[in-house]
Design goal:
354 residues, mainly beta, six-stranded mixed β-sheet, 2 helices, 24 strands, globular
Length: 354
């Protein structure tokens, strides 16, 4: 399926948020936001990066004019690195939040990257109003024989909840969550090959998207059960030229007539192991349609990217040549996607049908 055949595309609407030069907490950028509605207002939850690459999650009210998001009003910080698992020697951060409203619980659930003593780990928090957040802690992964891997051994990013429960492969009504383990070796790699293995690799040769499940009944008894993920399924890895290095989830899945629309990112270029902030990679956005009943199955996929770094604001920044979709909201019947621009700013695009 080519980009022309894929049912959706993204149309730029422009810059939404840039760093406030007078705010030290934004000295190294605002980027990769979550977003959602609460109390009849639309909020953005940007990642705010202070000097030294220390990240916090902020809150901003989105200004809407004529059905379009046109700016923000800053409302402060809602999450900052203060626990032992969000701070490590020489590093700290709560990064790249994604939020999903779970009607069954009456709560927003936030997945975020806790950058702590052992590196990046997925963590969860919940809120009724997007302002006050209760931490649930880092995610742990139940090992099962069918998965052939213990995900607790790997760093993890780009976690996204589906808003509606599904029947998991084990037959239990469950919340489903997409995520991207880092550095899993190809299952076909032999022990003798391991010294020469070149991580990160997934089942198709690059970091890939997986899905895990959380039984609804357990969460209704104890909300902290949201942090215990099981039944892990490989969903998709890099397949096309624009995503040859790795892929990862972008916005929480959107329900469409064809199934679940997942906007994801793909990476090309080369990694420099000596740098945290890469300078020779290109991030672009594409799309997948996941099956409505069995969302671990990919129904359709864009062969080409549907948004790439073409503007100056997307090409120049802390990490150049990046568009990184992280949130999607509906305004007056249209869907708008918020995305990181060059790890420095936040842009907005409109999702339209081809």
């Amino acid at each position: 399926m080519s980009v022309a055949d894929f049912p959706f595309r993204l149309v730029r609407e422009g810059l939404l948020m840039a760093p406030d030069q007078a705010e030290p907490l934004e000295a190294e950028g605002v980027l990769n936001p979550a977003a959602g509605w609460a109390g009849g207002e639309l909020f953005l939850l940007p990642r705010m990066v202070a000097e030294g690459n220390v990240s916090r999650v902020g809150l901003a009210r989105v200004e809407v004019e004529a059905g379009r998001p046109v700016g923000v009003t800053r409302l402060g910080v809602v999450l900052e690195p203060r626990t032992t698992w969000e701070r490590g020697p020489g590093n700290a951060g709560v990064e790249d939040p994604r939020t999903t409203w779970l009607p069954l619980l009456g709560l927003h659930v936030m997945t975020y990257v806790a950058y702590g003593p052992v590196g990046p780990r997925t963590a969860l928090a919940v809120s009724a109003d997007l302002r006050d957040w209760r931490r649930l802690g880092p995610v742990v992964y139940r090992w099962d024989e069918d998965a052939e891997v213990d995900l607790n051994l790997y760093h993890n990013k780009d976690a996204l909840f589906l808003p509606e429960p599904v029947i998991a492969p084990d037959g239990e009504l469950s919340f489903a969550v997409l995520h991207r383990p880092m550095g899993i070796l190809n299952p076909d790699t032999s022990i003798g090959d391991l010294p020469d293995a070149k991580p990160p690799t997934g089942a198709t040769g690059g970091e890939a998207i997986w899905m895990s499940f959380i039984p609804v009944a357990g969460v209704q008894d104890d909300l902290s059960a949201l942090t215990v993920w099981r039944g892990h399924r490989y969903v998709a890895g890099p397949e096309y030229a624009w995503e040859e290095l790795k892929i990862g989830g972008g916005t929480p899945p959107i329900r469409v007539p064809e199934g679940w629309l997942l906007l994801h990112h793909g990476v090309t270029g080369r990694f420099d192991a000596s740098r945290i902030l890469q300078q020779h990679v290109h991030y672009a956005a594409g799309g997948m349609i996941l099956d409505a009943e069995q969302p671990w199955l990919v129904v359709a996929r864009s062969v080409d990217s549907i948004l790439q770094a073409d503007t100056e604001q997307e090409r120049a920044g802390v990490v150049p040549n990046v568009v990184f979709p992280t949130a999607a909201v509906e305004i007056d019947g249209e869907t708008f996607v918020f995305y990181g621009m060059a790890d420095s700013r936040i842009g907005v695009a409109r999702l339209v049908r081809n």
